[in-house]
UniProtKB/TrEMBL annotation:
CDD domains in the record: GT1_Gtf-like (cd03784)
GO process terms (BP): antibiotic biosynthetic process
Transmembrane residue ranges: none
The protein's name: Glycosyltransferase
Keywords: Transferase
Entry superkingdom: Bacteria
GO molecular-function term, one example from the UniProt record: UDP-glycosyltransferase activity
Source species of the chain: Agromyces kandeliae
Length: 431
């Protein structure tokens, strides 16, 4: 049996997809990953085969820097980083304008390249990142059954009256201007229309019998796999979803790290802090978090990413601060975590029973933060306005959550441990 995994050349996308594929690998099945060259090391570390498939302009092997990207992508990233400092609506508007080039890069060429790989391998099963739109065009055009994996908040696949790029819910710390929100909605509708036109044009080249779709962002494969805990999805939205499974999380195994293990052996109660591979560039916010933790006198493990650790000020001797840290391992021991609200961070924390302080910056992070807040699994603050004192207050609240929230969070973690995401994916595709 052969499983084909199709991923953009970004570590944050490939890591959960590769983790799902371990259910096939551990049964002795063949796993082939089609992705770009930047993440080849990740493919090798999982013990998988690789086929070269570039699905976009940029790449990210783990920590991203604008200077490491092609000129157009580097300029786009720098614009994005500037927008995050202006606030939620400015960031979402910027991302909406960038969306056509971000998501539909050489759609016909990439679709045909995907189809060639499928023809060569003849895989029994296929897992594809939902945001790999050009690859999904190739799969749909060839009639190849596949698991369509939504790695972000479920609203990354809009349902009902949702518009791609507009958060369907906001956490209480955000009160977007109604006029600005309506402007964002109009912009995102325009982007959806143009994106759908591009999708339909590419699909018609691939298959002249293609029937045009109204909203390509809402298109999906025959089975949608949400890399997300079902406990964070309300019943009203659940009723609108296509055929699907909730995977909970895709918590990966990580290589042993001697320094981390020695640090953990001291048995300190600590807070884990990470803004992922992109938003770690916001050293100003990381510095405020460090100020809050110093004021509390608490121990921290901080993944600084692309921020120089010197920006965080004087670091206590008992803190663990590095550019990259094994997130899943540390979440397994942390008492609380501070995150930008990325899907991997949220799902891996909840899968480990760790309450969160969420500081969302962009895309679906606002909806994800609202879901965490509604479930009582964390506190949400605006990263651009939260003071060190407000961050310290939020950390106190999540470090020792109310008993009912603690019990529900522990129950979610226990359920995922009993039935991990890779096993749910395997059963869904092989049923």
């Amino acid at each position: 049996m052969t499983l084909l995994v199709i991923s953009p050349d970004y570590a944050s996308h490939l890591l959960p997809l590769a983790t799902l594929a371990t259910a096939w690998r551990d049964r002795g099945e063949r796993v082939v990953v089609a992705t770009g060259p930047a993440t080849a090391g990740i493919v090798d570390a999982f013990g998988f085969e690789r086929r070269d498939l570039r699905l976009g302009r940029g790449s990210n092997p783990g920590v991203i820097a604008a200077g490491d990207q092609p000129p157009d992508e580097g300029d786009s990233l720098r614009g994005f980083f500037r927008a995050t400092a202006e606030g939620a609506l400015a960031t979402l508007r910027y991302q909406a304008r960038e969306r056509l080039t971000d998501l539909m890069w050489d759609p016909v060429g990439r679709a045909r390249a995907t189809a060639r790989i499928v023809e060569e391998l003849a895989p029994e099963h296929v897992l594809v990142d939902h945001l790999a739109f050009s690859a999904r065009l190739g799969l749909l055009g060839a009639g190849t059954a596949h698991g369509d994996v939504v790695l972000g908040h479920p609203s990354a696949l809009p349902v009902g009256a949702e518009v791609y790029g507009v958060p369907p819910a906001w956490p209480s710390a955000f009160d977007p201007d109604p006029g600005g929100l309506e402007e964002l909605r109009r912009l995102c509708r325009t982007v959806s229309e143009r994106f759908s036109d591009e999708w339909n044009r590419a699909a018609s080249v691939l298959d002249p019998a293609h029937h045009a779709v109204d909203d390509a962002f809402a298109e999906h494969g025959p089975l949608v796999l949400y890399n997300y805990p079902s406990e964070l999805v309300d019943d009203d939205r659940r009723r609108l979803l296509p055929p699907h499974r909730f995977l909970g999380s895709a918590r990966r195994s990580e290589p042993a790290d001697a320094e981390v293990e020695a640090w953990l052996a001291h048995g300190r109660r600590f807070v884990y802090v990470s803004f992922g591979s992109f938003l770690s560039v916001r050293g100003d916010v990381l510095a405020r978090i460090a100020d809050a933790l110093r004021a509390l006198g608490w121990t921290a493990a901080i993944a600084t990413g692309s921020t120089d650790a010197a920006e965080l000020g004087d670091l206590p001797r008992d803190w663990l601060v590095r550019g990259y840290l094994p997130q899943v391992r540390l979440l397994g021991e942390a008492a609380a975590a501070v995150t930008h609200g990325g899907n991997n961070s949220v799902t891996e924390a909840i899968g480990s029973g760790v309450p969160l302080v969420v500081l969302p910056f962009s895309t679906d992070q606002f909806a994800g933060a609202a879901a965490v807040e509604a479930a009582g699994f964390g506190v949400v603050l605006d990263p651009n306005t939260a003071t060190a004192q407000e961050l310290a207050d939020a950390l106190r609240r999540v470090m020792d959550p109310p008993a009912d929230a603690r019990g529900r969070l522990d129950a979610v973690a226990a359920g995922q441990a009993a039935r991990p995401g890779p096993e749910v994916a395997f059963d869904a595709l092989t049923a």
